[in-house]
């Protein structure tokens, strides 16, 4: 799930699927794509048994409040929004582990 | 004395976790580089082919993935992911018998399973003769996919390690309730 260039690139890499029922395993998020549509597609991907990892631009994951999601969610940069390590959910959870009183 | 075992285990787990975090960040930096290279190559391809020639308008109406992600579920450990190209044999399917087949004994042929049709290369969506920059973009994103699988495995391992760490810390608190 990402901007046009990111999705086109990864589809070139060979992970795209569009079956006879026209059910894609990708979503190009454009300026007029609503948050509801993005969240609905994301939930649909989560429920599909044939999808193991979801690649998503970080700014889309942030916008749609999908942070508390399973670890098979991989946030990637987008052209207009580079990755911000401070916003990465894995690193934030890891940072929370190393509190002084827990390490005594 | 009773807490020495869990303490040593805690230290070991903490070191493993820190190593995994470091590895995850290194792979994240590598993935970001591959993706940025891919975008640049796509822009070059667009410059060569036309602004609207590389995008969703060219996506095929039927797509079969060339690459799939496989997963292993360990009973007592974290899940792992790895990428497999469609149509490749798993190591278990290739054995000593293959060496015999390669010796070409006469006209007899061992019946082979019907090969499934190879999925179409996505490069073909953009024409027959595509610029080199588009092939470079494909190569960059393919490398990115392998890194993505490694990162997903690391993320799961880090979360698993985190929950193990919390469990051990609770255990230690119970063994040493009076410790500061």
TrEMBL record, chain A:
The keyword Transport applies. Keywords: Hydrogen ion transport, Ion transport, Transport. Belongs to the V-ATPase F subunit family. InterPro entries: ATPase_V1-cplx_f_g_su (IPR008218), ATPase_V1-cplx_fsu_euk (IPR005772), ATPase_V1_fsu_sf (IPR036906). Gene3D superfamilies: ATPase, V1 complex, subunit F. It comes from the Eukaryota. It comes from Monodon monoceros (Narwhal). One of its GO terms (cellular component) is proton-transporting V-type ATPase, V1 domain. This is V-ATPase 14 kDa subunit. One of its GO terms (molecular function) is proton-transporting ATPase activity, rotational mechanism.
Automatic annotation (TrEMBL), chain B:
One of its GO terms (molecular function) is unfolded protein binding. The keyword Ion transport does not apply. Keywords: Coiled coil, Cytoplasmic vesicle, Endoplasmic reticulum, Endosome, Lysosome. One of its GO terms (cellular component) is COPI-coated vesicle. It comes from the Eukaryota. It is found in: Cytoplasmic vesicle, COPI-coated vesicle; Endoplasmic reticulum-Golgi intermediate compartment; Endosome; Lysosome. Residues 7-34 form a coiled coil. Its main location: cytoplasm. Residues 102-122 are annotated as: Disordered. GO terms for biological process: vacuolar proton-transporting V-type ATPase complex assembly. The keyword Chloroplast does not apply. Accessory component of the multisubunit proton-transporting vacuolar (V)-ATPase protein pump. Accessory component of the proton-transporting vacuolar (V)-ATPase protein pump involved in intracellular iron homeostasis. In aerobic conditions, required for intracellular iron homeostasis, thus triggering the activity of Fe(2+) prolyl hydroxylase (PHD) enzymes, and leading to HIF1A hydroxylation and subsequent proteasomal degradation. Necessary for endolysosomal acidification and lysosomal degradation. May be involved in Golgi homeostasis. This is Vacuolar ATPase assembly protein VMA22. The gene is CCDC115.
């Amino acid at each position: 799930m990402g901007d046009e260039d990111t999705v086109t690139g990864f589809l070139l890499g060979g992970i795209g699927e569009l079956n006879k029922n026209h059910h894609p395993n990708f979503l190009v998020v454009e300026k007029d794509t609503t948050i509801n549509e993005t969240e609905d597609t994301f939930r649909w991907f989560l429920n599909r048994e044939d999808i193991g990892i979801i690649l998503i631009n970080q700014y889309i994951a942030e916008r749609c409040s999908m942070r508390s999601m399973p670890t098979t969610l991989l946030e990637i940069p987008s052209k207009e929004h580079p990755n911000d390590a401070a916003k990465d959910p894995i690193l934030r959870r890891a940072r929370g582990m190393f509190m002084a009183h827990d390490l005594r | 004395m009773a807490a020495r075992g869990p303490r040593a285990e805690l230290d070991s787990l903490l070191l493993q976790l820190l190593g995994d975090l470091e590895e995850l960040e290194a792979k994240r930096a590598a993935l970001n580089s591959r993706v940025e290279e891919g975008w640049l190559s796509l822009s070059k391809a667009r410059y060569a082919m036309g602004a609207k020639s590389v995008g969703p308008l060219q996506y095929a109406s039927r797509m079969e993935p060339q690459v799939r992600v496989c997963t292993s579920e360990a009973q007592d450990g974290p899940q792992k992911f790895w990428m497999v190209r469609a149509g490749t044999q798993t190591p278990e399917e290739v054995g000593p018998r293959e060496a015999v087949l390669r010796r070409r004994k006469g006209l007899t042929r061992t019946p082979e399973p019907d090969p499934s049709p190879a999925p179409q290369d996505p490069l073909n969506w953009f024409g027959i003769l595509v610029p080199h920059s588009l092939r470079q973009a494909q190569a960059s994103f393919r490398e990115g996919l392998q890194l993505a699988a490694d990162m997903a495995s690391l993320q799961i391992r880090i979360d698993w390690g985190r929950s193990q760490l919390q469990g051990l810390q609770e255990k230690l608190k119970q063994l040493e309730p009076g410790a500061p």
